[in-house]
Fold this sequence. Notes:
The chain has 186 residues and is mostly helical. The chain has one domain. The chain is built from six helices and no strands. The chain has helices at residues 14-25, 43-52, 59-87, 94-115, 121-167, 171-181. The longest helix is centred in the C-terminal third of the chain and has 47 residues, at 121-167. The termini are far apart.
Amino acid sequence: MKRRTHSSLDKLPAALRDTITRMIIDNEWPVDFPKTYDGTPRLEDIVEYCKHRGQWVSKSAVGRYSMGLKTIEKMRTLGLIARKTMENLTPEDAPKTQKAAAQMATALILEFMTSRDDYTSKQIKEVSQAIRDTTQVTINADKYIREQIATKVKAAEKNITDIAKKKKIDPETLRIIREQIYGIYK
């Protein structure tokens, strides 16, 4: 399938595109809408508004444009939520939360990539950077989680060994405690 390089909405005047964006993202009706309106603007309403302004666009073009805008808005919202969530994290909870946020962002990125096929080079670059960033967050979170586990295992091993020496526990009993109770294998 040939990739489209532009949308018919990209050719519209900037002011009209801004109004369409507000209709899609903010559910805002323009003051010069030609009819009485109620509720959230639908794709048909946007097409009708464009005709009223002397521009013809198809419902499918508006739908594709809308899907891309809504996905980008979801990504922005997710970024805000992630930043707010990260403000009050403890060091132990941070890696798991970072990983979860990165996985949600990756899901949104994939939704965006499959929602349309008419990306600009700037959008492709932004999506690529977002994928890189979320992947790096996940890798760093996994690495940190593994380091935390290794540190806890070493501390547990030291405590078990110290207690075993004080209590004069035989090596076989110590091995059983390590392996069967704590899951520490040497």
